[in-house]
Specification:
Blueprint (H helix, E strand, L loop, with lengths): L2 H15 L4 H4 L5 H7 L10 E2 L2 E2 L27 E9 L4 H19 L32 E6 L37 E7 L2 H14 L4 E12 L28 H7 L18 E10 L1 H5 L3 H8 L28 H5 L10 E2 L2 E7 L5 E11 L6 H11 L6 E11 L16 H9 L1
Antiparallel strand pairs: 1-2, 3-5, 3-6, 4-5, 6-9, 7-10, 7-11, 8-10, 9-10
Helix pairs in contact: 3-4, 4-5
Length: 436
């Protein structure tokens, strides 16, 4: 969509809604108020296929539907790029924070639809900052998805301690971890995935700008080269070690597996955390790879470590990537054997990781690896038992180290134009808004 067309769409949406313009609101608090007044959705939406989005739109830069029972960016076909940000809450004012969630939702709705935030990056008052930073003008939606989650520490704010879900546990310490505190934790997170890196960065940048004074970025991570797929039958992308991993990932069209392993069910919560029904739990781990050591390791040892051949990605003794593995044919400490559901009482997660490179470590070694993202119905039955087994005996541990970690409760989706991120958690405010 051209910039002129986008501008006309924005103007018509404001006129149709009967909401006051940005110029009339500038004296009442500026762009933040104007943003809350503009809640029109994106003009382009892709067709839903169950809980997934039709991957056919990937080639056209189309938009992913923002509204739904579950948040987009989980079962959605994995995009090529990532910008992930963890935030800390800086305000003690509950009403102010709820308004921020509403403003963020309005901005996310527009950006995922391929539109600028608020009244755009130009054409407004010359004396005031524009509503949008402008670097995504003229770019397609690029299948942008924005997914929000709340960390354990978030529930120390706004009198919400009683609403912390039982499944949002503090992750145990696993052997070999060496966390950088500046890349660990966070009160809330936003995951931006898109096929264009500038679209993803623009989204996080604008949410951070809108949240200035109320939230602040604690840490962030750029990712490229998706390392997993949620599209059935697709080839699994390779990680920076050159291997395919997680070939039996849950597909976005596998509604039964999504219901069993990813989406929180009605019976999963105590009364005070029923707000998580339809949501999921996200584990984010920054995993550093010892690239230089790995690159000097023989091909046979590399294949033994993973339990796959490097060329096809097939399990030991198999011909094709998706052929069911025969675990006993692998070495006891092979990564695939230890991570497989059959070795973990059926524990299954939905992987959505990305590769990263962040320069060097000052010693001439690449700071590179995997930014691991895993969604599940309950971390106590998903990530924790799997990671406990991997951290104990996985041969891959010689070549990797977990250096950052965070856990988030990802609420259900935004159902319609009147809904907003976190409305089920802030049920009091949502009820009052509905009644007014």
């Amino acid at each position: 969509m051209s910039e002129v067309q986008d501008s006309e769409v924005q103007k018509s949406e404001v006129q149709e809604s009967g909401s006051p313009s940005r110029r009339s609101l500038i004296g009442w608090g500026g762009a933040g108020l104007a943003l809350g007044a503009v809640a029109a959705g994106g003009a382009v939406a892709m067709t839903r296929v169950g809980d997934d989005v039709d991957p056919a739109g990937a080639d056209t830069g189309a938009a992913v539907a923002f509204h739904g029972a579950n948040q987009a960016g989980i079962a959605t076909p994995v995009q090529d790029r990532l910008h992930f940000a963890a935030f800390d809450v800086k305000t003690d004012d509950r009403a102010e924070f709820v308004q921020l969630l509403k403003d963020w939702t309005a901005a996310a709705r527009r950006m995922t639809g391929g539109h600028a935030v608020g009244e755009g990056a130009y054409g407004g008052l010359a004396e005031a900052p524009p509503d949008d930073t402008g670097e995504a003008l003229g770019l397609k939606p690029s299948r942008l998805t924005l997914t929000i989650g709340f960390g354990p520490s978030f529930f120390d704010h706004f009198g919400l301690s009683g609403s912390r879900p039982d499944a949002l546990v503090d992750l145990p310490q696993f052997p070999g971890e060496n966390f950088d505190k500046s890349r660990t934790g966070g009160d809330l997170c936003v995951q931006a995935c898109a096929d264009d890196p500038q679209v993803a960065v623009h989204a996080i940048r604008n949410l951070a700008r809108i949240g200035f004074g109320k939230v602040a970025i604690r840490w962030s991570q750029l990712g490229f080269g998706k390392t997993s797929s949620t599209t059935p039958g697709a080839q699994t992308p390779r990680n920076l070690m050159g291997f395919k991993d997680g070939t039996r990932n849950i597909a976005g069209t596998e509604t039964d597996r999504l219901k069993k392993f990813v989406w929180v069910g009605e019976g999963d919560n105590s009364a005070n955390s029923a707000w998580m029904t339809g949501g999921s739990y996200l584990v984010a781990r920054r995993i550093r790879m010892n690239i230089e050591t790995w690159d000097r390791t023989s091909l046979q040892e590399q294949e033994d470590v993973f339990g796959r051949d490097k060329g096809e990605g097939a399990a030991v003794g198999k011909a094709k990537e998706h052929d069911p593995p025969f675990l006993k044919a692998m070495k006891p400490d092979a990564h695939v054997r230890l991570a497989h559901p059959d070795s973990n009482s059926g524990a299954t997660i939905l992987r959505r990781g990305y590769s990263f490179t962040d320069g060097t470590d000052g010693l001439g070694r690449l700071d590179a690896g995997l930014f691991f993202l895993a969604y599940q119905r309950d971390v106590r039955k998903g990530f924790i038992p799997i990671q406990r087994k991997l951290s104990a005996t996985d041969a891959l541990n010689e070549y990797i180290q977990h250096v950052g970690s965070a856990l988030f409760a990802v609420p259900p989706g935004v159902r319609d134009k009147d809904d907003w991120w976190g409305s089920t958690l802030f049920s009091k405010e949502a009820k009052e808004a509905k009644e007014s």
